[in-house]
Amino acid sequence: MASDLIALRDIISSSIDKIVDVCASTGKDFPSLDQPIHLSEFTPDGIRNHPDVSSSISLVVAAAFQLIATVQAPASTLTTSAFQFALPVSLGIAEAANVAEIIRPAGSKGMHVNDIAPKSGMDPKKLARILRFLATNHWFREVAPDVFATNLLSSLLDTGKELTENFAATKHQNSPGLAAIVGYGSDELMKSMLCMKEVLTEPETAFSEEVNETGFQKFFKTKLSHWAYYETPEGKFRRDRFAVAMSGLSKLQPPEAILSGFDWSSVPKGGLVVDVGGGTGHVSLEIVKAFPELNVVVEDAPGVIAKAKEYWEANLPSHVSQEKVDFIGLSFFDPQPSLPSPPDVFLLRYIVHDWSDKYIIKLFRRLRDAAGPSTKLVIVDSIIGYACDAPSTYSLDEGPKPPAPLLSNMGGANLIPYTIDLAILSCINSGERTIDGHNKVIEAGGWKLVEVRKNPISKTWLPTLVAVPA
């Protein structure tokens, strides 16, 4: 309908006008696609992180995605969608070939593919085709025939490190983690997704909730779970890269976001926060830095807990010396151990989406068994919306409804949680949940959902679900 085209045009136009107005009022220019990324992108000072700009960007992207789907010939959309795998594959090749590091010294002038290829160990004719495809998708720039330079997006592939003889083995160590995201996504993740069709349709695995019956096992021909594979000698490089990739993703969800996601002042002084699956405890550490009267227990696998002790001793030794933090190695699904005091909060940050319903319900029941009458279950995780209007008992205060004809979940502006949902389905049989999906497993685990709140500081930070013993 022509009216939809007009509405989408107006959404894009008015939203861009708002972005330009903020740039003018703040004296900040909007970053150019042709220039490498600036560190301000990862700080509150970045123009994209201004609340009005962030909201306008979401509207522009959602409308642009829908406009393309509306105006482009449907057969063209089908073809590009069916062959969209070429983009992550090409990004993975560029990352593995260290193209971003190789061409960095050339700056905006770029480097000829004949000079890039010997340092990457690739055929220049083939590499040129990969880089030209990426430049066509706005990753890198082709500044002259077969001459390529870094741009805003491709600069994210640059670890900032100098090339060395054993660079492939050490590339991601102490790096920002963004290149590791591409390496992970184009390797074990894409290979797992490649086998999803068979796993989801074969009777033996179609209804499985087991972590070792996924596309990952089918591709790598193993019975080990994704996590167990990482602990093998063969999986060590991928494990280390995955850890760095997760640290890169943390730039989207900084640990300090936990402070505004829940009212920590409501926890009694001297209260106990149990950080379930807390890793190094970097998130609960942020809590007690702001509320030093609180006590913490960090729970995770025994191998992880050793690193947690080191992390706290390096970053908050006073809490360690005052014996206000304990470290417990255990399996998620074992009964809770004897705790220093009744827990006031069980905190699960980005843990629930790692487990299928069968297993997360088991974990919730273990926590419920150890809970006191006033214990709160605080879950920080994605809540994916339906692609249609769907009233629910619990809803986030998202502000105004997206203007018509945009999808209620903002479509292309909100793809990341839906992509992660399928990614983790492919390798660990888990997934993101709708609010109704969360409520279902919370109730089955013996808890009652009482609050759902959007993080008030940033729309991109994860929401919080609060439950109490049922």
TrEMBL record:
Classify the source by domain of life: Eukaryota
What are the record keywords, sorted?
Methyltransferase, S-adenosyl-L-methionine, Transferase
What SUPFAM superfamilies does the annotation carry?
Answer: S-adenosyl-L-methionine-dependent methyltransferases, Winged helix' DNA-binding domain
Domain O-methyltransferase C-terminal: start-end pairs: 207-392
Q: Where is the signal peptide?
A: none
Q: Give a Pfam family name.
A: Methyltransf_2
Q: Biological process GO terms, please?
A: methylation
Which InterPro entries does the entry mention? Answer: COMT-like, COMT_C, SAM-dependent_MTases_sf, WH-like_DNA-bd_sf, WH_DNA-bd_sf
This entry's Gene Ontology molecular function terms read: O-methyltransferase activity
Name used for this protein in its record: O-methyltransferase C-terminal domain-containing protein
Give the species this sequence originates from.
Phellinidium pouzarii
